[in-house]
Amino acid sequence: MTNSSRPAPSVVVRDLQIRYGGHTAIEDLDLEIRRGEFLVLLGPSGCGKSTLLNAIAGLLDVSGGEISISGKDVTFAEPKDRGIGMVFQSYALYPRMSVAENLSFGLRMNGVPKGEIARRVEKASRMLQLDPLLQRKPAELSGGQRQRVAIGRALVREVDVFLFDEPLSNLDAKLRAELRVEIKRLHQSLGNTMIYVTHDQIEALTLADRIAVMKGGVIQQLAPPIEVYQRPVNRFVAAFIGSPAMSFFDGRLDGDVFVLGQVRIPLSGYAFADGSRDPGAPVTLGVRPEHVSVAGAASGYAFDGRVAVVEPMGADTLLWTELGGQPMSVRVDGERVFEVGQTLRFTFDPARLSVFDAATGERV
């Protein structure tokens, strides 16, 4: 029986295959994107995220499989017939046209009545705060303003699904932060399905309802941001998500204890994925910087460490120390003062650790 409380899928990809000559970019990929969901495709360059987005958009031919949007098979449909709006990394605005003309150009080419064009342009302009800019040319706009126009050009189509291909990557850090907020507000206001490609984990964590972390054309993990962050399914996801990155330690299991040289770390609070313990199995322990604290906590494993590097980061400070001869980062309050060479006692809660099989990289 279908759960009526769950939104119907807006975009469905089944057994998708994409090949270029002898190279396979995507093989047998399945993905369901819920209606009204903000899904982020995240991964390093070459992982297949833009290839997947372009396949959904109809910008490249698929070698096999099926793509449907709003219940309609669009596997071989033209982009204009898929009911999508797309925002690219490049603004691609017409330099001789005003903002208003750029917003309305596609509608005018499709013969939309003038009154309807005016209504849609006014609505998009209001939502994106473009009203004061409507008569300006692209050369008179900042990068952030140009990208808002590019987003507005997609919005005026009033479609069910919006596709974003790294739309903020050409902006500086301040503008990226501002546009992230605007895109999030836009999604909350519209409620449309949005698929967003990025290699920036901060964008993924702040924008997504769910994140699809990709590697080599394969979705490694598909889950809400908090689950991807706290319970990564493998070492690749764990290493890719998080800034500063998770620290890793190669050792072995001895029952409920992780052994790293002469260091023995109890894992009694750790939830093993399969409930098993393979004595002597080589594993990798993962610890996020904010899950380590300077001693004073009442519970958890504690160890002494010498501060090798101090990195002030404003609200936080990153301390670098060692555990069992392997480097580890610790995130602490930025108001506290620490010195290089200082010996501190650190502690962490085993329940917040991650343990991965050393051979497969999978969470255990």
From TrEMBL:
Residues 11-241 form the ABC transporter domain. The keyword Acyltransferase does not apply. It comes from the Bacteria. GO terms for biological process: carbohydrate transport. GO terms for cellular component: ATP-binding cassette (ABC) transporter complex, substrate-binding subunit-containing. It is found in: Cell inner membrane. InterPro entries: AAA+_ATPase (IPR003593), ABC_transporter-like_ATP-bd (IPR003439), ABC_transporter-like_CS (IPR017871), ABC_transpr_MalK-like (IPR015855), ABC_transpr_MalK/UgpC-like (IPR047641), Mo/tungstate-bd_C_term_dom (IPR008995), NA-bd_OB-fold (IPR012340), P-loop_NTPase (IPR027417). GO terms for molecular function: ABC-type transporter activity; ATP binding; ATP hydrolysis activity. Pfam families: ABC_tran, TOBE_2. Keywords: ATP-binding, Nucleotide-binding, Transport. It is a peripheral membrane protein. Its main location: membrane. Belongs to the ABC transporter superfamily. This is sn-glycerol-3-phosphate ABC transporter ATP-binding protein UgpC. It comes from Lichenibacterium minor.
